[in-house]
Each structure stands twice: as C-alpha cells, then as structure tokens.
Write a structure and sequence with these properties.
heterodimer, A: 541 residues, mainly alpha, MetI-like fold, 23 helices, globular, B: 331 residues, alpha/beta, D-Maltodextrin-Binding Protein, domain 2, 2 domains, nine-stranded mixed sheet
C-alpha cells in the first residue's frame, strides 16, 4: 500500500526525466544493436565461430572470474582490516588504498611488463646473480592479466566495503562481540552479509571494466571479447560485424545490472545508529605484522611502484611539463572532467531518485537502461554516440541553410557539449553506484514520514534527500572525474579540433611506442586524479 | 591553376565564411609529434595554415563516413596502406591526377586508381642478435619457419597491422597455402609469447631471450639512438627472396574536401625532396621519393631491395591474412 501512496504524491517530472535520460543512453546502444540490420558478413562470422570464439570465450571467462575473485578478496580483505583494526600506518592506508583509482590500468600494466619481462631489470639481475630466472612466471599471460587488472580494479570493492563495514550493522556486531564471537566469525557471519549489496554493486563495476578493457589485455596479450571486436573492426575493416559482436556485451551488461538488482530485491539494508563509532581493535604481534604487510604490500604494488616509475621517466623529459601545450591539455582535462562529473551525477541522481519516488517496474528498467553505457567498449560506444549526433548535425545544418542561407560546416560534432554528453552516457553508472549506495542507507520510512507531513515531490528531495545524499553525490562526482581523465576512445572521437586532453596526448605517444615520453602527461594525469581522491577521503570521514 | 584557385577563393568570400589565411584540414593517424614539425615548415613556407586531428585510422574513417559531404577534412593521412585501401573502398577519396605525385611516388607505393599516395616508406625486416646468428646464415622471412630456428624466434602480436600487411603481401607473393605453412612454422619456433610492441621485441633479442625477430626498422633506430651499443642488427632479405617487406605512411584527398586544391598542393609538397627528409627522418623512416636519400643513421643499416608488389594488396588481402594467422594459432 505504502509504495503506492509514495508514488501518487511524487511529482511526475522525475519520471519523465528518467525516461528521457534512459532514451538518451539507449540511442547509442540501439545504434550498436541496429548493426544486425546491416548485411551479415557470413565469411567473417564463419571464421570467428570456427577459429576464434572458443578460446576467446574461455579466456574472457577465466579473466573475468579471476579478476572478480581477486578484487573481491583484496577489496573486502583490505576494507575489513582497515575498518576494524588499528595498526601502525592504518590511518595512512585507509586513505591511500584508493589511490590506484588515479592510475590508468594500461599505464601500470606497461610498467610491470617492462619491469618483469625477460629483458627487464628484475630478471636481468636474477640471471646475473643466480644464472637463471626460470622460476619467474611469465607476466605476459592470462594470469599476469588477472593480477594486473585486479590490482587496478580492487579499489571499487575496497571503497564500498570499507564504508559498509564502518557503518553497517554495528549494533549486531557489538552484540556478537559481547557474546564472545571473534572478529573472524563476525566477519563471515555478519559483516559480509550486511555489506553484500555494496560489494555486489562494486563487483558489477569490476566485471564490466574487465569486459571492456582493451589497454591492459593488449599489453599482456590476452584474447578477450573486446580484442576480437577491435580485430574485426580494424583488421577486417568491418565495423558492422564489430558492432554485432558488441551487442553481446550490451546483453551481458544488462544481465549484470539485472542480476545485481535481483539480489537485493525485498531487502532493506538500513544502518542502525550509523553515526555511532565502533572502537577499532588494536593489533599486536604477528597479526599486526601481517596486516601491515598486506596493506602496504598491495599499496606498493597497485600504486607506489608504477607511480614512481612513471615519475622517474617523466623526470627525463621534465622540460616538457612547462610547454604551453601540456599545460593547456591539463586545463582542458580538468574542465572536461568537472563538467562531466556534474552532468553525470545530475543524470544519475535523476534516474536513481525517480525509481525511489516511483518504485515501479518501469522506472526500475529505466534506471537499468540508463546504466548501460558503461557496458560497451569505449570505441564502439564512441561510434554509437557519434552517428546519431552527426545525423542530427546534418539535419540542423540543412535546416539552417534552407532558412538562413547558412554556408558553414557541421556545428554540433566536435563541440565540448557533445563530448560531455558522450562521456556522461558512459559514466552515468559510476555516479549512480555511489548515489545508490548512499540512498540504500536512507530508510524509506523517512520518505513516508515526510510525505505524511506534506513534504513530497521536489520539496522532499530538497529538504530530505539532498541533505542526506550530498556526500554521496560528491563522491560520485569525484569518481566520475577520475574516470573521465583516464578515458581515451570517446574523448578522441568527440573532441573539437585542437582540443587535446592529457589522455589524448598519452594516446598519441603510446601508440607510437613512446612510453617514456608519455610519462609527462601520465604523471600530470596521476596528480590530477589524486587531488579529487583526497577530497573523496575527506568526504568519507 | 591560379585561376581556379582565385575562383575558389572568391566563392568562399562570397559565401561569407572566408578565412584570413587559407587552412587545410588533415585527419591523421600519424601522431602530433611526428606531423607537427612538418606542417609547421609548410606553414612557414607558404602561409597556409594546417589544422589536424589525430585518432586511429579506423575511427577516422567512420567519422568521415558520418560527416559525409559536410566534413571539414581535406586529407586523410594514415600509417599503413591497409587503411588507405579501406578508405578508398568506402568511396572517401577522389582521384588525383598530378604529374608531380606520379613522378615522386613510385608506382608500387601508390593506389593504381590514383586515390592515395605513399609519403614515407617503412621497412619491416629481420632483427638478429649478432652473438647468436651470423648474417651470412640468414636468407628470408620464410626461412624463419624452418625447424633449425626452433625456440629462437620472437614475433610481435598478429593484431598489429604491420604483421597483417607482411602476411598479406606474402599471400600475394606465394599464395595462401604456402604462406600458412610458413606462419605455422613461425608459431612453432616461438621462444616467448608474442610481444605487443617492436621495441620490447628488439630488447628481447638484445637480451638473448630469442635470437631473432621481425620488426619495423624505425623502432630499431630509436633504440640505437638511445643505446649505440645495442646488441642487435638488421638483415634485409635479398631480391632473390622477394626483397624486404615495406609499407607506407600515406595520404589521400577526400571527395568532399573544402580546400581541394590547397590539399593537393600540400600532398605534392610532402613528396618533394624538401619535405621528404623532414617527414621521414623525424621517425627514422625511408623517403618514398627515389631521388631522396634517407638519413645517415638509416643509411648505415645498409641498402636493400624492396618487394615490388603494389602495396594496395596489403589492404585487399588483410582480412584473409588475419584469418590465416588465426588458423595457424598466431595470436
């Protein structure tokens, strides 16, 4: 009964905006799926089915399972250790463990392949000392890929599980503790199940990142669904077949979001006394050493080592930092990421809140559709965004020509506006995950109470939800910001002339194999990404 | 020429969006740091401004298809013949009848339909570790498939267009069945998983992980510049073995080019002796214009005979080559 009451009192604007956003996201997705209407190139499909798809599906699956499992273990483990225990350096780790977000995974993958390959310093040294390096596993392999991707993706799980462990179910844990349950038992029996929706949401993002990753898997030489898409497009000159292949990824993305939603149906995860602090247990002896090794070990591997390598390369080209082209790229990167952060969070806020105010199946699906942009490889989405945009542009120019005698070229394509729209479509899901996580903690009873007091519709958002969710919106903004600065294919495809960002400059250099020179924009990108992450930490504490 | 030119200019003026300076717009796969100095030189010489946009060729081609008749682009510049072939298949280029282009660019390095022209030449050849291999024992790409090279060969990924072109040109030369046998032989001789870039491959050869491999010469040039004592040398297959495999960095003028005449002038200039060294030397590549000599570093690797089959075959047979490599288990 009560949900229906909520529904009738809410203002319909939320609903229509949500549909609008969902259809905006759906447009490029449909362009990709519409590739099935184009002639099917039988010879390419025959080849893929006979020679490529079997190994590729197996490798993709192994990579996916491996990365999801290891990111889960690292993220949940670190989240638990840092939120429940105190040990020397714990305060630093709590903040520092999310820094790998700022490290593009293709950069750390390249650094590690350089360090651990046969001709790299480690194995050269081992050979000179021990005469052999046969015991070092090959980094350019499926397992190398699993570990490198996990190291760059675990922060999704860490952040959300840390927050959940710090704020969820404390009174139950205190009760369990007072009944003599040891931390391990509390972790397995209580904490994990309390934190489940957040961990599941984070793992969804990890899974989609793995499916869409192109940089890292190319560097370690793993064949995945995404590499096959690029092979078909760039190699067979068949963007149609590439789009047809991509439509399966859209399907998978939809299934992932749908499953995630199903796992939390009819459950409420509302914090009891979330503000009440839980005393952390101080560690000592071997467990303390283990905790320090675990925390600092992962931090070093995921961030410190690749960051130091990038900075030392950048030092060789330090004069390039002061070039006006580098500085203007930095400035554009910040402008673009900020604009996209705002629009992506606004759009995400609308689809998430619309579903809250109208808890119906339609709005639920509208929200799921709005997140789909995250499920398609960047380049394919870039084409999906570009084609309708340029169509619209043609119509506009033709119209202007007919009515005003306008004689210039295209207007919309290659504007900052179209860039922001494209990137918003891509990263809406990132903003939504943060806002969703925040909203889960606000009991619907509050909404109902507010409605009974006559505060509903827009007023309810302004007076009740916005104050409670400000922090989640800010966190969403920061995460989108960090993602945008690392993004390449959409930025490349939609940017105006001469509007190069840091990631565009990195792309130009690394595609010519100039990794060390690329360290200059890469280190600026790292620093730019670290600043919002520091704020993100403030937000959390 | 001058007349049409001033006519175009007058037309532009009348349509009300004339630019103070003439501007040619280039979509380029060749990256900023490799084209900027060349374009700057042209602007300095002629006053013509050059606006350019970098991205990979496949994406640029999709962009051009979408922009259709209203594209601002005059020229598409790519780093391999395959993409030029694909762009011309998509009907993006116009036929260019230019005496100077015909003269400056050898026939096998341009489109038989005169839609695109090579601007620089890139050789893909054998790199070897002189401690482990004698140059006199080397013959050809095909030879690397022989059992005597078991566990001695390093290759770059088959996903790279350079290898796709090499195999495509081998199909053109020797037929599909023979080429597949060779590729299978290569795969069974591999000493390490395939590499993702030529630089890493050359380093592996120098470090002794493998004895030899196949690379583009300019990567070797860059490493040699940093480390003159690099333990690696280049070998070019002789004329009797079909010659060394080459590909091009090249360009075509787009059908909808708003500044067609200026764009043709730019393309012509790029193939003149004046620009050839600038364009090629910046990346240790070879000029396409036979009258121009490569840089002294590049010359020091020795001269060679190139495979003379028209480079457009690399595009035509590229899909076939990739399928062949997939079948042979070459990742």
């Amino acid at each position: 009964m009560i949900p229906y009451y909520r529904k009738f009192q809410a203002s319909p604007g939320w609903r229509y905006l949500s549909y609008g956003i969902a259809s905006l996201v759906l447009t490029p997705v449909l362009v990709v799926i519409a590739a099935w209407l184009l002639p099917i190139q039988q010879e390419h499909w025959d080849h893929l089915l006979t020679h490529v798809l079997r190994t590729l599906l197996l490798d993709t699956l192994l990579l996916l399972i491996g990365v999801v499992a290891i990111s889960w273990a690292l993220g949940v483990g670190l989240g638990w250790v840092c939120s429940q225990f105190d040990f020397p350096g714990a305060g630093f780790l709590r903040r520092a463990l999310i820094l790998p977000f700022a490290m593009p995974s293709y950069v750390s993958a390249f650094v590690y392949v350089g360090l651990l390959d046969f001709s790299g310093p480690l194995r050269t040294w081992l050979r000179s000392v021990f005469g052999t390096d046969a015991f070092v596993p090959e980094v350019r392999s499926l397992w190398g890929g699993v570990i490198l991707l996990s190291l760059s993706l675990y922060p999704y799980v860490y952040v959300l599980s840390y927050d959940a462990f710090s704020s969820q179910g404390r009174s139950s844990w205190e009760a369990a503790r007072s009944l003599g349950a040891r931390p391990r038992v509390i972790f397995h029996r209580l904490a994990l199940s309390f934190a489940r929706p957040w961990i599941a949401g984070a793992l969804c993002l990890v899974a989609l990142e793995v499916l869409n990753d192109f940089g890292t898997v190319s560097i370690v030489g793993v064949q995945t669904f995404t590499t096959a898409i690029y092979k078909v497009w760039f190699g067979f000159f068949s963007p149609e077949t590439a789009a047809q292949l991509s439509s399966f990824l859209v399907l998978i993305a939809f299934a992932v979001f749908y499953l995630e939603q199903q796992t939390r149906l009819r459950r409420e995860y509302i914090a009891q006394n979330p503000s009440q602090g839980l005393r952390r247990i101080a560690l000592s002896g071997p467990t303390m050493v283990l905790a320090i090794l675990f925390g600092f070990g992962i931090f070093a591997l995921a961030f410190a080592i690749p960051a130091l390598q990038v900075l030392s390369w950048a030092w060789q080209y330090r004069l390039e930092f002061m070039q006006s082209s580098t500085l203007s790229a930095l400035w554009r990167t910040i402008v673009l990421a900020s604009l996209t952060g705002i629009t992506a969070c606004a759009a995400a806020g609308i689809v998430v809140m619309a579903q809250r105010y109208f808890p119906t199946g339609k709005l639920e699906r509208s929200k799921q559709l709005a997140l789909l942009g995250y499920g398609i490889p960047g380049s394919v989405l870039a084409i999906g965004v570009f084609l309708p945009l340029v169509k619209l542009d043609h119509l506009l120019v033709d119209g202007l020509k007919a009515s005003f005698g306008y004689g210039g070229g295209l207007i919309l394509t290659g504007t900052v506006l179209s860039m922001v729209i494209a990137l918003t479509i891509r990263f809406l899901a990132v903003g939504a995950s943060s806002i969703d996580a925040g909203l889960e903690r606000v009991s619907t009873r509050l909404d109902e109470a507010a409605t009974l007091f006559g505060v509903y519709g827009w007023a309810q958002f302004r007076q009740l939800h916005w104050p409670l969710l400000k922090v989640s919106f800010a966190s969403g903004f920061l995460l989108v910001f960090v993602d945008v600065i690392k993004e390449m294919p959409l930025t490349l495809m939609t940017r105006p002339f001469g509007w190069d960002t840091l990631s565009v400059r990195i792309y130009g250099l690394i595609s010519e194999g100039e990794w060390q020179r690329a360290a200059v924009p890469a280190s600026l990108l790292l620093l730019t990404g670290m600043i919002p992450l520091v704020f993100f930490n403030r937000n959390r504490s | 020429m001058r007349f049409t030119f001033s006519m175009t200019l007058a037309l532009l003026m009348s349509s009300g969006w004339a630019l103070a300076n003439k501007t040619v717009t280039v979509y380029t796969e060749r990256k900023d740091h490799l084209v900027q100095p060349v374009f700057d030189a042209y602007t300095k010489k002629t006053g013509v401004q050059i606006k350019f946009l970098t991205d990979n060729a496949a994406t640029l081609i999709e962009r051009l298809k979408g922009e259709a008749g209203k594209s601002p682009a005059d020229m598409l510049l790519t780093v391999d013949a395959g993409n030029l072939w694909s762009a011309s298949q998509a009907g993006l280029f116009q036929t260019i009848n230019s005496q100077s282009l015909d003269q400056n660019v050898p026939e096998y390095l341009r489109d038989p339909g005169k839609q695109w022209f090579g601007v620089s030449l890139r050789a893909r050849t054998i790199v070897y570790n002189p401690d482990k291999v004698k140059a006199s024992d080397l013959k050809s790409y095909e030879q690397l498939a022989e059992p005597s090279f078991k566990k001695r060969l390093c290759l770059r990924s088959s996903k790279k267009v350079y290898n796709q072109s090499l195999v495509a040109m081998k199909i053109a030369e020797n037929g599909e069945a023979a080429t597949e046998k060779v590729v299978r032989g290569w795969v069974s001789n591999l000493a390490a998983p395939v590499f993702q870039d030529d630089t890493k491959l050359i380093e592996a050869v120098a470090a002794g992980q493998c004895d030899l491999g196949i690379v583009n010469t300019y990567y070797y040039g860059r490493l040699l510049e940093k480390n003159p004592k690099l333990k690696a040398k280049l070998f070019f297959p002789g004329k009797d073995q079909g010659g060394a495999h080459v590909n091009i960095s090249g360009a075509g003028i787009l059908k909808a080019a708003p500044q067609k005449d200026e764009a043709i002038k730019l393309l012509e200039w790029l193939t003149t002796p004046e620009a050839q060294n600038l364009f090629a030397d910046i990346n240790h590549e070879y000029p396409v214009n036979p009258q121009v000599k490569p840089s002294s570093l590049v010359q020091s690797w020795g001269s060679f005979d190139t495979n003379l089959i028209n480079i457009s075959k690399a595009g035509e047979l590229q899909a076939q080559a990739i399928k062949l490599m997939d079948r042979a288990g070459y990742n």
